[in-house]
C-alpha cells in the first residue's frame, strides 16, 4: 500500500491503475466472447425449452468446400421459324438512292452570218490521207472566218480552184473538170471551223475532162486549193502501190 522506490509514490500508483485497467478490459472481452452465443439462444423465444440436442458422433460430417462462381454461357442464337398466324417483322429495306442528274452544259448558239465572205477573210487547212494508186481519195477543207464572226461562202468552180500536183507536173485540175467541185453554200464561222469535202478519182485530167491513158504512178503528191483572190493552201499525201 505504501510504494517505495526512487520515484515519487504517484508514479507507482499510476502504473498500478494502468495495469488494473488492462486486466479489467481483458476480463470483459473474454466474458463477451464466451457469453454471446448463449445469450442468442436464451433470447430466441420466451418459454421455449433451452435443452440442446446432443450431436451424435456417428452423424456424417458435411464437407463444406468453397463453391466456384458458375460460368455463365450465353445461349446460341437460333433462327426461329415464324409461328403460323403470327406477324413477322422483316427488316426495312434501305431507301433507294435516286441518282442525281447533272445539268447538261448549255450549248452556245452558233453565230448567224452577217454577209458574204471575202476570199482574203477565210483561212483554210486541208486534211488528206494516203491512198493506193488508182483509187479515189477524199480531202477535207476546213474553213475559218478571219474578218467576221460568221459569213456566207458560195463554193463553185468560179470561186474555188483545186489541183493535184507532183513537183512541176499538174496531175489533175478543177479547171479541166469543173463538175468535180460540188456547188455548195457554207456558213463560215470564226469557231468552229466549217468543212467542205473534195473527192479525187485518182486519175489524170485533160482539157474538157477527157480520159487520159497514162496512169498515175505511186509516189508523193500535193493537193492544192485556193479561193479565187485568196491565198493558196496545200497538203501532202502518198500514193502507194496497190
Give a written overview of the molecule:
The chain is of the alpha+beta class and 242 residues long. It has a domain at 119-240: Immunoglobulins (Immunoglobulin-like), CATH 2.60.40.10. It is 14% helix and 27% strand. It has a five-stranded mixed beta sheet, with no helix packed on it. Strands 1-3-8 form a three-stranded antiparallel beta sheet, with no helix packed on it. A two-stranded antiparallel ribbon has the order 4-7. It is rod-shaped. The N and C termini lie far apart (155 Å). Residues 40-64 have low confidence and may be disordered.
Describe the structure concisely for a colleague:
The chain is an alpha+beta fold and 242 residues long. It is built from one helix and ten strands, in the order H-E-E-E-E-E-E-E-E-E-E. It has one helix spanning 9-42, and strands at residues 122-128, 131-132, 137-145, 150-155, 160-166, 169-173, 184-189, 194-200, 219-227, 233-240.
**C-alpha Rg (nearest Å):** 62 Å
What share of the residues lie within helices?
10-25%
User: How many alpha or pi helices?
Assistant: 1
Q: End-to-end distance, in Å? A: 155 Å
Strand count: 10
Name the beta content range: 25-35%
**CATH superfamily membership of the domain at 119-240, which one?**
Immunoglobulins
Shape: rod-shaped
- Main-sheet strand order equals 2-10-9-5-6
Amino acid at each position: 500500500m505504501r510504494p517505495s522506490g526512487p520515484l515519487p509514490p504517484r508514479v507507482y500508483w499510476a502504473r498500478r491503475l494502468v495495469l488494473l485497467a488492462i486486466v479489467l478490459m481483458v476480463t470483459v472481452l473474454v466474458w463477451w466472447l464466451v457469453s454471446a452465443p448463449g445469450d442468442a439462444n436464451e433470447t430466441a423465444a420466451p418459454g421455449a425449452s433451452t435443452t440442446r440436442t446432443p450431436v451424435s458422433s456417428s452423424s456424417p460430417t458435411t464437407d463444406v468446400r468453397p463453391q466456384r462462381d458458375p460460368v455463365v454461357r450465353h445461349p446460341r442464337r437460333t433462327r426461329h421459324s415464324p409461328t403460323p398466324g403470327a406477324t413477322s417483322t422483316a427488316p426495312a429495306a434501305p431507301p433507294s438512292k435516286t441518282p442525281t442528274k447533272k445539268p447538261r452544259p448549255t450549248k452556245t448558239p452558233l453565230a448567224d452570218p452577217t454577209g458574204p465572205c471575202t476570199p482574203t477573210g477565210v483561212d483554210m487547212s486541208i486534211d488528206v490521207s494516203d491512198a493506193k494508186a488508182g483509187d479515189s481519195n477524199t480531202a477535207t477543207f476546213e474553213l475559218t472566218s478571219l474578218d467576221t464572226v460568221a459569213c456566207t461562202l458560195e463554193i463553185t468552180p468560179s470561186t474555188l480552184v483545186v489541183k493535184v500536183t507532183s513537183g512541176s507536173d499538174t496531175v489533175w485540175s478543177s479547171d479541166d473538170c469543173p463538175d468535180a467541185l460540188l456547188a455548195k453554200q457554207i456558213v463560215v464561222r470564226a469557231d468552229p471551223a466549217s468543212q467542205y469535202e473534195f473527192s479525187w478519182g485518182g486519175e489524170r485530167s485533160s482539157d474538157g475532162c477527157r480520159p487520159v491513158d497514162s496512169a498515175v504512178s505511186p509516189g508523193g503528191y500535193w493537193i492544192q486549193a485556193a479561193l479565187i483572190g485568196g491565198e493558196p493552201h496545200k497538203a501532202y499525201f502518198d500514193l502507194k502501190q496497190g
